[in-house]
Amino acid sequence: MGRDRTPPSVVLVGAHGHGRGHLEQLAARTATGRVRLAGVADVRPLDDQQRSLAGDCRFDTDAGRLITEVRPDVVVISTPMHTHSQLALTAFAAGAHVLLEKPPTPTMAEFDTLAAAQKAAGVACQVGFQAFGSGAYAELANLIAAGALGEVRRIGMIGAWTRTESYYTRAAWAGRRTLDGVPVMDGALTNPFAHGVAMALRLDGSSGADSVDAVEVDTYRAHPIEADDTASARMTTASGTPVTAAVTVCAETSREPVIEVVGSAGRAELWYTEDRLRTADGERRFDRADLLDNLLDHVADGVPLFAPLAETRSFMQMVEAIRLGPAATPIDARFQRLDGHRVIVPGVDDVVRQAADNGALFCELPVAWATGKPFRWSEGDDNAVG
């Protein structure tokens, strides 16, 4: 796949929703000769714009057949999480490198199977945590490694967004823990705020195997869904650092999520969706590199991947804890209000801040609606408690 050769061939699996962005990107890179779009797979037909972007490449409703027959250099997978494992395994078997949308899988067992298959196939797999391509993240990671913040005492991740009711009716898997008996795990921590959780863990150097000693989760729902829309998690890393994530999509005011790193010699705040970093030296915005380009450069020239599959295992430990834990506790109707098509939990904006600042779960704060019980899980623990 050197750049002096024929452009690498790419198959895109999933062209609707988030996949449309991948299709646009691949069409643009095909036009410049960076790649060759060899095929698109989707269970739904392409609309006129998508067909124009796909050009004369092959289209198939059967992704496995397309990958097996085309045998592309790279497969981009942008499909619901519960379909990731089989598609990625098919790509690995065909000798393809993979860009796999986040979260990589809904269960730890599937993740470990996937990681082993990738290693055996000798191919690369980049997970779609786009924020790992941010210069702001790289700068903060370098500051921590250099000891500029001193000893890291705690890391907090705060997410307060709003979503309309249509967010949970957009697809059959939206807001579900399972679909047709298969784990889906489409909750606030595992999907919309997944980037922040994965980044908070990795900033502590906790990303590979055996990186998280314990996970405690406390999940709630205001919407009539199966999974959580408001949740907190506290992860104790192998280095002993508490990493707390507190999030909701039922906020009164939508704000960009922030990761706060507190050390013995200073603190830093990273707004990862905006590539914005604030330290004692001031505030800066950074550029962001593209994950597909990084994957192509990795295969061609050996540059490090931004988000290799193996380095997302700590995030999967949190996903596993939520999967094994109890269903989200309903937030009583008296603690909700409807604003048009938005379900709001008044005061939740302050609650997520308090939880992250204090390293606390929601149920550990004086919050009337937080009536759930925390669930604690650690890998290899057959006696997880709630």
Shape: globular
Provide the residue-averaged pLDDT: 94
Q: Largest sheet at a glance? A: 10 strands, mixed
Question: How big is the Rg?
Answer: 21 Å
Per DSSP E runs of 2 or more residues, the count of β-strands stands at 20
For CATH, the homologous superfamily of the largest domain is named as Dihydrodipicolinate Reductase, domain 2
Total individual domains: 2
Distance between the termini: 50 Å
CATH fold name of the largest domain: Dihydrodipicolinate Reductase, domain 2
Tell me the layout of helices and strands.
Blueprint: E1 9-13, H1 18-31, E2 36-41, H2 48-54, E3 58-60, H3 63-70, E4 74-77, H4 84-93, E5 97-100, H5 108-121, E6 125-127, H6 135-145, E7 152-162, E8 178-179, E9 182-183, H7 194-203, E10 212-221, E11 230-237, E12 242-248, E13 250-263, E14 266-271, E15 276-279, E16 282-285, H8 291-301, H9 313-324, E17 329-330, E18 337-339, E19 342-344, H10 348-358, E20 375-377
Parallel strand pairs: 1-2, 1-4, 2-3, 4-5, 5-6, 7-12, 10-17
Antiparallel strand pairs: 7-13, 8-9, 10-11, 10-20, 11-12, 13-14, 14-15, 15-16, 18-19
Helix pairs in contact: 3-4, 4-5
